[in-house]
Amino acid sequence: MTSKTSIIAPPYHVQSTAAELRSGFPYFPQHDLVSALWSQKWRMPCERGVYPFYDGNIQDFEPIFAELIRVSGDRTEFLYQPDEYAKPFFPVAEKLVAMAEQGEEKGDASQARDLYLRAAAVYRIARFPINRSPVSQQAWELGKAAYVKGGQYLNPPSVPVDIPFTRADETAGDRQVPIQAYLRMPAGEKPEKGWPVLLFICGLDAYKTDHTIRTQLHVGHGFATLSFEIPGTGDCPAAPNDPASPDRLMSSVLDWVDAQAASYGLDTSRIVARGVSTGGYYAMRIAHTQADRLFAVVAQGGGCHHLFDAGWIGAQNQMVYPFALADALAYKFGYRGADPIEKYAAEAGKFSLLASGVLDRPSCRMFVVNGMEDSIFPIEDSMIVGMSGHKKDLLARGDRGHMGDPGAEEIVHEWIDKTMSGKP
Predict the structure, then answer these.
(1) Which domains does the chain have, with CATH numbers?
(2) What mean pLDDT, rounded, does the chain reach?
(3) What is the pLDDT of residue 2?
(4) Are residues 365 and 390 in contact, defined by beta-carbon separation less than 8 angstroms?
(5) I need a labelling partner for 154 at 20 to 30 A (CA). Which of 20, 76, 257, 383 fits?
(6) pLDDT value at position 424?
(7) Would residue 420 be called left, alpha or beta, if left means φ above 0 and alpha means ψ between -120 and 50 degrees?
(8) What is the three-class DSSP state of 367?
(9) Which pLDDT tens digit goes with each residue over 29-52?
């Protein structure tokens, strides 16, 4: 666990509104005890089945966290030992998979679906926030296997597809392997021009296995929905430390959409990209670097510039995110050796969309939304993007935290529907 910083950054909105400050930044008590993480941060969303517990069941997690509290001595240092932290999740997930298989044998597809997805949710929290150790990587692989089995019983099903990474640059750190994605096709009669496409860009900790509810809503609104991960997470083969790698990633994905348009009945003139959380950063980028190939982009909960400030990075481990966010982001951006936080903070400016001039380029139609009280990525970053250039709508939701929730999901769908219809 990284020690807290005494660096004071330039003032951010959340510094003036937080209930408690340490070293000038918001502080949240779930960092003090494992029991506080569960009781004060995670139990309620688990009970409600919302992020990061989509598809989950609180009955599965109550005993897991009781065991985590016991084996950790209630010390949060245990949360930063990913192999040890992950182990208590496996017996519960394995039991759920076995029960799902029994459901399949009986021909009960709905029971099998629900149990496989519950198992995938348990494996998700086992490797949370990012698969960066042997056991957390195992949890990721087992979670994917469970999700694929459950996904075939969704309506419409979630189908794995391999997208050729045609624009890969191995000299820049890309891996020459396919981009693994999940595709969901709408039910019903295909529109005359084909199905519009929704590219769902995942975040730091929630991958293509983790957005069933969101993709269900998008296919319900008539979008062929393709989900995939961002550099440095999940299965993404794009170089985590190269600021330009997402352009190669997205170009390859769009090439695949073009190539498969006839096979799947896709309307390539109506492609929308939606990035959530850290995926919002990539959505902000591609709205400018892929403006001629995208109809519209939604960047929800993203950052573009100040999230890379040394002061902000130094305080991330104490703010609202449940684990050590600076550590996870450093790993995600490719800093994985000695002193990763220090190196990340020193070099993170190269990822700034403002400093690099990306925001000076023309963009496609864009919706930027976040909560004013976000202490994961500062609201100032959404304002920078939303107030630069043209064809952009900005919504900074008062009294809301990261992603602008609760209530932002409905607003996002309303904006997309209106934009696609051409209504003002």
Answers:
(1) 30-153 (no CATH), 156-424 (3.40.50.1820)
(2) 96
(3) 42
(4) no
(5) 257
(6) 59
(7) alpha
(8) strand
(9) 999 999 999 999 999 999 999 999
Are 277 and 300 in contact by the 8 Å Cβ rule? The answer is: yes
State the Cα–Cα distance between residues 369 and 379, nearest whole angstrom. Answer: 9
pLDDT, average across residues 2-12: 51
Does the pLDDT value for residue 7 go beyond 60? Answer: no
How many residues are recorded in the chain? 424
Burial class (CB in 10 A: 0-12, 13-18, 19+), 122: buried
How far apart CA 299 and CA 279 sit, in angstroms, is 8
Is 14 within 8 Å of 20 (Cβ atoms)? Answer: no
Catalytic (active-site) positions: 277, 374, 402
Segment 62-85 shows an average pLDDT of 97
Q: In this model, does residue 5 exceed pLDDT 80?
A: no
Looking up tokens 């065991």 gives: 67
- Reply yes or no on whether the pLDDT at 385 is more than 70: yes
Q: Report whether 278 contacts 370 (CB < 8 A).
A: no
pLDDT of the residue at 423: 65
- The pLDDT tens digits of the residues spanning 261-299 come to 999 999 999 999 999 999 999 999 999 999 999 999 999
Among 297, 273, 206, 278, residue whose Cα is nearest residue 240: 278
pLDDT at 10: 59
Rounded Cα distance, 13 and 344, in Å: 24
Q: Distance between CA atoms of 173 and 154, rounded to whole angstroms? A: 36
Give buried/exposed letters for 50-83 (b at 16+ CB in 10 A, else e). Answer: ebbbbbbbeebbeebbeebbeebeeebebbeebe
CB of 253 closer than 8 Å to CB of 228? yes
How far is it, in rounded angstroms, from Cα 212 to Cα 158?
Answer: 9
Contact present, 368 and 394 (Cβ < 8 Å): yes
- Beta-carbon contacts of 23 under 8 Å, excluding residues fewer than 6 positions away, are 4, 5, 6, 7, 8, 315, 318
| Alpha-carbon torsion (138, 144, 147, 152), positive or negative | negative
Please report the DSSP string for 279-327 in residue order: HHHHHHHHHHHTTTT-SEEEEES--SSGGG-HHHHHHGGGSSSSS-HHH
Strand runs (DSSP E) across 236-288, as ranges? 266-276
Checking DSSP bridges between strand 195-201 and strand 224-228, what pairing results, if any?
Answer: parallel
Are β-strands 159-163 and 365-371 bridged in parallel, bridged antiparallel, or unpaired?
Answer: unpaired
How does DSSP classify residue 267? E
